[in-house]
Amino acid sequence: MKTKKGYRLRQLGKEYILVAEGLEVMGANQMISMNETAAFLWEAVEGKTFDTEALAKLLVDEYGISMEVAEKDVTALLQTWNKAGVIED
Amino acid sequence: MKKTYRVAGHKFAVVMPDNDAAWNEMGPYEPFVCVDASDCLFTAELLEAMPDTSDKQKVTVSCEGSDMPRIELYEWRGQWLMEMAPLLEAPVRAYLLTDKTFQEAKFRILGSIRFSLGTSLMLMFAFATARKNTLLMHSSVTVKDGKGYLFLGKSGTGKSTHSQLWINNIEGCSLLNDDNPVLRVMEDGEVHVFGSPWSGKTPCYQNIDVPVGAIVNLRQAKKNTIRRMSLVEAYAAMYVSFSGYRFIKEMADGLHATNEKVVGTVPCYALDCLPDAEAAWLCYKTVSQ
């Protein structure tokens, strides 16, 4: 899968939001609140093709958690992203 | 003839033939006339005829509702071309042609002079100031005890009505602007709200500014309740209340930086309300603390 074009990650104080800014998503007026982990992953894979395993590996490397926990977290996150329509196959 | 105006500290010039009827419609701009014509952000010149733009490339169309203006954006020979209509379904009534740095604009009036002038100058003002700590807002603003209170909300929510409720029920409260005030983060970091020549249907064109007391996002409801918004909520409520093309990266970055400073500085509230005096009192008591 890959991230959809037109979304821009913005930092707001200590928080992160993904904002529909591009022409591709104009008029959507969409904004998705993200925690630090989600923002880290988005930034790492923006514009690239990726899968669950690749994201989980990033989490293992960054936060030193087990692959099992990382995969569980990534699966939940990808469901959120999918529902929000910010990624595509 | 060329005249210079200063709105929220930003200067711009309007150039039109001496005896053109459009000058008669510049009354709302008179309080903003500026003698010193140096350092204008942009110049907008009236065109008698448009160049042939048939090889234009469509970029996008924006319209925030069927009773709101429609703006078609095209790219034409390295410039932006905007074709504007007063309503979603109405025919094009004004053209605006500008270089991509938003310094040199030309506009053409087809229908209502006021619509063409107002829309062209508002768009140019919003674009030219987007990277200058400035936001051209869609809001109604009251002043009480030297502070400005901005009411936000979708078209038809009752922003103007809520302002009127403050003015009719709270002593010493007045209207600053009813539709398009300007927010600016000053050099010392304080956020000020400025009057402008654009005030919707209410003639209220005041060349004054006050520090902002609070920003209140309105929503119609069956009873009156108010609460403080989180940073993200406030950012989102503001985001839909000012103009700009976000697909132009520098513009989006500028607007984001200003919005971030505003919501980080000014207390922002969500008011669910009825159009009654109690709503005005609840709001005033909460936000003026």
Would you mind describing this structure in some detail?
The complex is a heterodimer of chains A (89) and B (289). Chain A has one domain: Arc Repressor Mutant, subunit A. Chain A contains 3 helices and 5 strands, in the order ββββαααβ. Chain A has helices at residues 36-45, 52-63, 67-84; strands at residues 2-3, 7-12, 15-20, 31-34, 87-88. A 3-stranded antiparallel sheet of chain A has the order 2-3-4. A two-stranded antiparallel ribbon of chain A has the order 1-5. The model of chain A has no long low-confidence stretch (mean pLDDT 93). Chain B is of the alpha+beta class and 289 residues long. Chain B folds into 2 domains: 2-129, no CATH class; 135-287, Phosphoenolpyruvate Carboxykinase, domain 3 (Alpha-Beta Complex). In chain B, strands 9, 10, 11, 12, 13, 14, 15, 16 and 17 form a 9-stranded mixed sheet that branches. In chain B, a hairpin with a 2-residue loop joins β5 (70-76) and β6 (79-85). Classes of the chains: A alpha+beta (89), B alpha+beta (289). Chains A and B meet through β2 and β3 of A and β4, α3 and α4 of B.
